[in-house]
Specification:
18 strands, globular, 8-stranded mixed beta sheet, about 400 residues, binds zinc ion, 14 helices, alpha/beta
């Protein structure tokens, strides 16, 4: 193994609670990597020798972003739908079903290339861990295929057969839930770590969502829930009750929902790209943080409602529109995402952590919000390998 000393770091974001501030900042810092892990952090003046030396030039170094919510296994795009929506026109064509049809028609190689493209796109913007859901196949074979392909690119794979009711079951939603909790789950569970459901009017109600999540839990999957995105509903309470790692979206919350999240280990994952891309009201991160909930920020990268892979964009929007401070938003995009995936090896920079690092072309992590839309990636390491 070769050790690498990254020194002359202007501001190091450790997310280590024993260091100052929410972000555990160290000024004039250095980090040593050995193989795939971080072995030392501290003041540059105290750093040990290493085989290689990288001069950070006074820039900021932070943990690679942890994007805990993305839908990357799909084909086609929905440019026309977005254009119509942003032009004030109604658009009646298929929404998710457009993507389901294109995804089913794609070859394995086409889907694999698409996932590789978006994982690479995210990596070049500093994302070193990305979760990936199924949900555009909606048949036993197509959902299993989506998860098999996703698993070649990330360990964080999520079975989302319960994204919407498959078109073939439009008149028999109960039959579709039976499929999702039966034969489809059997085919998908070997390729998935998580089980998810879109609990929403027009998708799956509280009882159906409970059935889907409970069946997944019985097969060894851990739940996460698309909850309270478009309206108030039972999703958040169900997520907390079933011990979900995360309740995602959390846009429409009652006081009881906020209290439930704050009193639990379930992370509130906010996805501002979705509200941005649909001109919808943003979730109130300030309310959740003030109540004591753990907040994560993620992209929700998908071709319909949030076609961005940029965590920096989500940070900027969260600061401008959702009441988060820059420190809170950076923490949510790194340590928050790790909590939402129940990962202790990523989202922080301390000895023993996986060496997932983002060197910003800026002196401070605040620049992620202060300089929106500007490419700020100077270098990226994933598991100790320099990727950018
Ligand atoms: Zn989603």
């Amino acid at each position: 193994m070769t050790s690498t000393l990254i020194t002359n770091i202007g501001t190091l974001v450790t997310n280590d609670p024993s260091c100052p501030g929410l972000l555990g900042l160290v000024e004039d810092a250095a980090v040593v990597l050995d193989g795939s892990v971080v072995t030392w952090t501290g003041r540059a003046a105290d750093a040990p020798a290493a085989d290689q030396r990288v001069d950070a030039g006074g820039r900021a170094l932070l943990p690679g972003f942890v994007d805990s919510h993305a839908h990357l296994v799909f084909a086609g795009d929905r440019t026309a739908e977005f254009n119509a929506r942003m032009s004030g026109q109604s658009y009646s064509a298929g929404g998710i079903r457009t993507t389901v049809a294109a995804t089913r028609a794609a070859t394995d190689a086409e889907l694999d290339a698409n996932v590789a493209r978006f994982v690479g796109e995210a990596l070049r913007q500093g994302t070193t861990t990305v979760e990936c859901k199924s949900g555009y196949g909606l048949t036993v074979a197509d959902e299993a295929r989506a998860l098999r392909i996703a698993a070649a690119h990330t360990a964080e794979t999520t079975y989302l057969g319960a994204h919407v009711v498959a078109p073939e079951f439009a008149d028999d939603p109960a039959g579709y839930v039976d499929l999702v909790t039966g034969e489809m789950l059997d085919a998908c569970a070997p390729h998935a770590r998580w089980v998810d459901v879109f609990c929403e009017q027009g998708a799956f109600d509280g009882d159906q969502a409970r059935a889907v999540l409970t069946a997944g839990i019985e097969r060894g999957l851990t739940p996460r829930v698309h909850a309270n995105q478009l309206s108030h509903g039972p999703g958040v309470q169900l997520a907390v009750e079933l011990g979900a790692a995360s309740a995602d979206h959390c846009t429409h919350l009652t006081d009881a929902d906020v209290a439930a999240l704050a009193g639990s280990a379930t992370v509130a994952t906010l996805l501002p790209g979705a509200e941005f891309s649909t001109r919808a009201p943003y979730p109130d991160a300030r309310r959740l943080l003030d109540a004591g909930a753990t907040v994560a920020l993620s992209t929700d990268c998908n071709p319909g409602s949030s076609f961005t892979s940029s965590m920096a964009f989500c940070i900027a929007v969260a600061v401008r529109e959702m009441g988060m401070t820059p420190d809170e938003a950076v923490h949510a995009a790194t340590a928050g995402g790790a909590r939402a995936l129940r990962r202790t090896d990523v989202g922080h920079i301390s000895p023993g952590a996986r060496a997932d690092l983002l060197l910003l072309d800026a002196p401070s992590p605040v620049h992620l919000a202060y300089r929106p839309g500007v490419p700020l990636t100077a270098a990226v390491w994933r598991a100790g390998v320099r990727e950018v």
